[in-house]
């Protein structure tokens, strides 16, 4: 039986003529500006060019997230007339969705609607996007198209994206139909392909930097528009295994989440990548600028159960201890020697045989923490562990911590803080000035959400699981869509009559 359903998706359209690269006045650096919602952010609202029809510094949006077994987190996105779900990924920069031209087994396994290949408006060129590391990897390839894209009630016309015709990416099998890259423009292959097509493959750094406003990643363009309350977004992931959290996972664009005060966040600078480190070469109009490449911050140290760990002795191209903040990573990754040391400390089985699973008693909580900006940000003991066997909550496994590649050009980080970290911490990502980073540098803010009684809560969860046949509770949820309407009405005063309603089969 074919069922039809109708829902309304509100959106505020940011027209191309309003998307401008507007540098911040250098004299405003370091000032604190009182925002209309009561937040104080260590950033300055951007200068507004006169004559623009777009109301500046006003808009924001928030939407809940879908969750597939705490492995893949998704957000609803509308591209053209297609409403689908995409994996939220701060570790990459490109937006792509599966098109109807994709016939791989992975594409055929999704229940999400594909983007109709007949609707593709070419933006120029094609891409082959690669994900993972040297031991695990997937790809997604297809032509670069453009259409109106809408996320959390905020829309941009002529947004470049990849209409994927071939992929083996596992997120497509986990409630998503693509990836929503939230990284910096310098990591965008789609932007490169689009601007290359405009300049007949003679792309210069000047063309690339100036082209971000029209051809860059979705959130980068929003950040440059000046229309957001602040050029930023935040991510907090819900927990849907061991102890299911209720509706607290969200992607918030343009401001901090309601009820979160800036004074409670710890802000640290984002690492800038020189060209010799694999970063973007400076443009001629800003020859001294160094651009961000990844959402990467310095680490002060790593702590396990209150004891500071020794630094890695593995060699790499970067002597600096740093971490990538990556929602597209379902685990925490680090140097092999440090990871092995942690697993040996918590698991006698792994200590005796490094090929064995790192099992340990569920009732013994372990806290892995990261020192950032002079403060410690722990991973909740419930996010460090997983149930090892069905029907048994006496033995758990530390499978949320794995080894990864050493630092190398273009990827200088030694740690990758994935979903377990985001379930335990609210993370705020501030773009700053994308054309002149030295004027308004990018930064990341951290706020621990781990309760003081996390160890007690774990014991309660174990007791409940024992009463539930020896199984922790778990669930998977779809990306909400109606939430966009509610949030936009509450946040921006948009009347339901202003929302666009579509029927979908």
Automatic annotation (TrEMBL):
Pfam families found in the cross-reference section = Asp
Query: Which GO terms fall under molecular function for this chain's record?
Result: aspartic-type endopeptidase activity
Please tell me whether the keyword Transcription is annotated for this protein: no
Identify the keywords attached in UniProt to this record, alphabetized: Signal
InterPro entries xrefs: Aspartic_peptidase_A1 (IPR001461), Pepsin-like_dom (IPR034164), PEPTIDASE_A1 (IPR033121), Peptidase_aspartic_dom_sf (IPR021109)
Keyword presence, Signal: yes
Q: What CDD domains has UniProt attached to this entry?
A: pepsin_like (cd05471)
Q: Where's the Peptidase A1 domain? A: 73-447
State the active site.
Answer: 89, 326
Identify the Gene3D superfamilies for this entry: Acid Proteases (2.40.70.10)
Kindly indicate where the leader peptide sits in this chain: 1-21
Report the record's Gene Ontology biological process terms.
proteolysis
Which family does the similarity line name?
A: Belongs to the peptidase A1 family.
What is this protein's record name? Aspartic peptidase domain-containing protein
- Annotated source species: Lactarius akahatsu
Classification from the root reads: Eukaryota, Fungi, Dikarya, Basidiomycota, Agaricomycotina
């Amino acid at each position: 039986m074919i069922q039809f359903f109708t829902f309304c998706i509100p959106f505020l359209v940011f027209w191309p003529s309003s998307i401008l690269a507007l540098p911040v006045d250098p004299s405003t650096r370091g000032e604190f500006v009182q925002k209309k919602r009561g937040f104080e952010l260590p950033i300055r609202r951007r200068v507004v060019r006169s004559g623009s029809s777009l109301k500046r510094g006003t808009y924001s949006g928030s939407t809940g997230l879908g969750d597939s077994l705490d492995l893949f987190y998704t957000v609803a996105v509308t591209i053209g007339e297609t409403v689908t779900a995409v994996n939220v990924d701060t570790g990459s920069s490109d937006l792509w969705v599966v098109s109807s031209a994709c016939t791989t087994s992975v594409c055929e396994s999704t229940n999400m609607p594909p983007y109709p290949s007949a609707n593709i408006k070419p933006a120029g060129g094609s891409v082959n996007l690669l994900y993972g590391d040297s031991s695990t990897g997937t790809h997604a390839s297809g032509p670069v198209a453009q259409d109106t894209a809408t996320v959390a009630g905020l829309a941009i016309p002529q947004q470049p994206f990849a209409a994927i015709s071939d992929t083996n990416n596992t997120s497509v099998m986990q409630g998503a139909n693509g990836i929503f890259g939230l990284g910096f423009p310098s990591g965008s292959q789609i932007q490169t392909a689009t601007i290359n097509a405009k300049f007949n493959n003679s792309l210069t750094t000047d063309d690339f930097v100036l082209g971000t406003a029209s051809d860059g990643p979705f959130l980068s363009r929003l950040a440059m528009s000046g229309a957001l309350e602040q050029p930023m977004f935040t991510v907090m992931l819900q927990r849907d295994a061991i102890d299911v959290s209720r509706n607290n996972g969200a992607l918030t664009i343009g401001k901090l989440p309601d009820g979160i005060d800036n004074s409670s966040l710890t802000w640290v600078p984002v690492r800038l990548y020189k060209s010799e480190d694999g970063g973007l070469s400076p443009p001629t109009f800003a020859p001294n600028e160094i651009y961000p490449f990844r959402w990467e911050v310095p680490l002060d140290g790593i702590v396990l159960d209150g004891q500071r760990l020794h630094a890695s002795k593995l060699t790499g191209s970067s002597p600096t201890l740093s971490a990538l903040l990556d929602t597209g990573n379902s685990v925490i990754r680090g140097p092999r020697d440090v990871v092995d040391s942690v697993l040996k400390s918590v698991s006698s089985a792994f200590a005796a045989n490094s090929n064995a699973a790192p099992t340990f008693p569920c009732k013994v909580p372990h806290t892995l923490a990261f020192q950032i900006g002079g403060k410690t940000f722990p991973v909740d003991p419930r996010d460090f562990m997983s149930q090892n066997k069905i029907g048994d909550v006496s033995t758990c496994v530390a499978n949320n911590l794995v080894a990864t590649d050493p630092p190398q050009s273009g990827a200088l980080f030694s740690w990758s803080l994935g979903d377990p970290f985001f379930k335990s911490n609210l993370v705020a990502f501030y773009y700053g000035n994308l054309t002149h980073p030295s004027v308004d540098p990018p930064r990341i803010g951290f706020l621990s959400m781990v309760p003081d009684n996390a160890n007690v809560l774990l014991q309660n969860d174990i007791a409940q699981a024992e009463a539930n046949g020896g199984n922790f509770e778990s669930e998977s949820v779809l990306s909400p869509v109606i939430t966009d309407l509610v949030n936009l009405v509450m946040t921006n005063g948009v009347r339901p009559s202003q929302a666009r309603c579509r029927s979908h089969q």
